[in-house]
Amino acid sequence: MSIKSNEEDGNQTEPITFILLDFNNEDLQVLFSVLFLPIYLVTMAGNILIILLVVNNQHLHTPMYFFLGNLSCLETCYSSAIMPRMLVSFLTGDRTISVHGCFLYFFGFLAATECYFLAVMSYDRYLATCRPLHYVMLMDGRICIMLIAGSWISGSLGISIIIFLVSQLRFCGPNKINHFFCDLTPVIRLSCDKTDLVEMTAFIISSIGTLPPLLITISSYVGIIKNIIRIPSTTGKQKAFSTCSSHLTVVACFYGSLMIVYVLPNMSSLSDLKKLFSLFYTLLTPLVNPIIYSLRNKEVKDAAKKTFKTLTALASQYECLQKQVINVIN
Fold first, then answer.
1. Which spans are transmembrane here (predicted)?
2. CA distances from 243 to 49, 125, 224, 293, 324 (A)
């Protein structure tokens, strides 16, 4: 990754660092600095717990939980890419970041990968609900691995192309990024080169990475809802609608916040609003996904209870062994 020199531009010099502006409201910064650390810790704990439960419990080795485990892994990466640097900025006041560090800070591939994951998970639920007799054949282990690998690779390839193009731009003027992390659009605006090609490429790749998965997700849930309506039992229908509505809430918050941040026109009056809504897909979505998709499930709750009992038993055995060793020494 390289940045072009500006020696030919006379007295213009290349900025060594970017400065993140965070929120203009100091009260908001204080509030967020108090809230973000516990939210980050809870997010990491919840997602890591899901990963451990899926890996260590044989009865959770199914396509649905395989996808949920990967989603939790993604959310862990998501939070770790954004929150630590943001917390340091809020708590210490150090808002500087190197140019190359800013490029490495781009996490767009995680957002694109999450779009693919949500589409895969909704299609998985569609097959399980609407085509249960063919589910095992249509969603075997090989297909699951291909879907997940394809999601990770597709998300990574798209952002790699964009980062390469952005890294060829020159940054010779203002170096203040009107955001609390190095998002793509604010960084491109600081370039002193023509950015039409980069912006068009980013738009095309972003559209490919979001619109098809969104259509698949919506189509899958439309099919699921149609199938739920045909359920004769009122109790079963209410339970199914409750689960479906929870999933749709997560999808709506994620895609809705993305559209507000990236589709609304770039106006100074909307900058703080966009920053606020960017918290939905960078902070709240990783927090609520484990709760909505996993921790409400009876199988996951049973696996968690079993795991905690095992850990408690191991702790008791260790304590007894420690006492025996002390008695022998004495």
1. 30-53, 65-83, 103-123, 143-166, 203-224, 245-264, 276-295
2. 21, 11, 11, 9, 50
Q: What is the C-alpha separation between 82 and 278, in angstroms, rounded?
A: 11
Token pair belonging to 53: 């439960």
DSSP string, 89-148: HHHH---EEEHHHHHHH--HHHHHHHHHHHHHHHHHHHHHHH-GGGHHHHT-HHHHHHHH
Q: What would the pLDDT profile of 225-268 be if each residue is shown by its tens digit?
A: 888 888 777 776 777 777 777 778 888 888 888 887 777 666 66
* C-alpha to C-alpha distance for 150 and 147, rounded to whole angstroms: 5
Instruction: Output the CA angle 128-134-56, nearest 5 degrees.
Output: 55
Please tell me the distance from the alpha carbon of residue 107 to that of residue 104, in angstroms, as a whole number. 8
DSSP per-residue letters across 270-302: GHHHHHHHHHIIIIIHHHHHHIIIIITSHHHHH
Tell if the pTM clears 0.70, that is, is over it: yes
- Cα separation of the two ends of the chain: 63
Q: What is the DSSP letter of 180?
A: S
